[in-house]
Amino acid sequence: MRHVELVLSPPARPPSRAEAFHFAAELARRHYENFSLASLLVPRGLRKHIFALYAFLRTTDDLGDEAPGDRLSLLDSWEAELEAAYRGEARHPVMVALSETIRSFDLPLELLRKVIEANRMDQRIRRYRTFAELLRYCDHSANPVGRLYLMLFGYRDEELFRLSDKTCTALQLTNFWQDISRDLDRGRIYLPLEDMERFGYSEVELLSRTVNAAFRELMAFEVERARSFFAEGLALPDRLRGFLRVEVRLFSYGGLAILRKIEALDYDTLHHRPTLSRAEKFLLFLRTILRHAPRIRPA
Q1: CA 199, CA 215: separation in Å to the nearest integer?
Q2: CB-based contacts of 148: which residues, under 8 Å, 6+ apart?
Q3: C-beta separation of 90 from 78 below 8 A
Q4: What is the chain's Cα-based Rg?
Q5: What is the C-alpha separation between 4 and 6, in angstroms, rounded?
Q6: Smallest Cα–Cα separation from 118: which of 157, 158, 159, 176?
Q7: Residues of 46-66 as b/e, b for ≥16 C-beta within 10 angstroms?
Q8: In this structure, are residues 265 and 275 in contact, taking their beta carbons and an 8 Å threshold?
Q9: 3-state percent helix, strand, coil for the chain, nearest multiple of 5
Q10: Do 60 and 116 form a contact (C-beta atoms < 8 A)?
Q11: Contact partners, residue 162, CB within 8 Å, separation at least 6
Q12: Residue 267 CB coordination number (10 Å)
């Protein structure tokens, strides 16, 4: 992972902006197959900035989940490089690209810091006692991403941010319920302990990957709660313009499709990971375009 290695040993001289944006774009395309579809709709002038933001997010997550060694120290180094980007002194190619995006769109440091802090939380916190604690994690891991993305398209309205937070929290919760088994392998439990107690499902049962009536009732509750966040956020796309109107709907529709897959598995995400196939993603993309394209106006 070259992008992670460069956090440990940044180049002596920073790359040019063109080289940095190329690095970010290649990183984005390697890790997110849907960019090939989405980029058909993104205004050309915005593409490099979306790639830069995604590359920052991808690198941050990889430092928190995949990097060898002292991950907290690596995240500290990454935050220092972020601060350098705000001073125009970054050397890591992702941060060199992001520094231009930060200047062009006046992106607030605090939102980017929150994403790094979420990955620190993953190193320090292995259990969440309450749903309120889990929402605080979502406010660091997911909600800043939606706000930053809206800012790239010129939106800074607090009501839009509120609706975006609902959608991003819903997506994060859906990812938790999709990846329960993967997270267990990392020693993490995102199911709130208070909810497990409410439904009579123990941590011992979870660690042994026991699927019983209590687990299914618990998961049905969590799936419906995630769906309620999507429902609140679905007012957002109608307040947006152009490509973004469709893309935000795609995010929500994709998340809702995963929730339906969880239900179709009778909630057994301990032994099966629900995903959308490429064909299903394409059909979702096509249906959303056909349904909402007549309402698209240039961004």
Answers
A1: 8
A2: 53, 107, 111, 112
A3: no
A4: 20
A5: 5
A6: 176
A7: bbbbbbbbbbbbbbbbbbbee
A8: no
A9: 75, 0, 25
A10: yes
A11: none
A12: 20
Q: How many residues in the chain? A: 299
The dihedral over CA atoms of 99, 3, 109, 90, expressed in degrees to the nearest 10, equals: -40
Q: Would you say 143 and 168 are in contact if contact means Cβ atoms under 8 Å apart? A: yes
Which of 167-201 are b and which e, b meaning 16 or more Cβ less than 10 Å from the residue's Cβ? Answer: bbbbbbbbbbbbbbeebeeeebbbbbbebbeebeb
Q: What is the pLDDT of residue 286?
A: 79
Domains and CATH numbers, the chain: 1-124 (1.10.600.10), 126-299 (1.10.600.10)
Q: What is the DSSP annotation of 200-252?
A: T--HHHHHTT---HHHHHHHHHHHHHHHHHHHHHTTSGGGS-HHHHHHHHHHH
pLDDT tens for 215-230 read 999 999 999 999 999 9
Structure tokens at 85: 């980007």
Strands (E), the chain: none
- Within 10 Å of residue 224's Cβ, how many Cβ atoms? 11
pLDDT of residue 284: 80
**Which residues of the chain carry a pLDDT beneath 50?**
35-36, 294-299
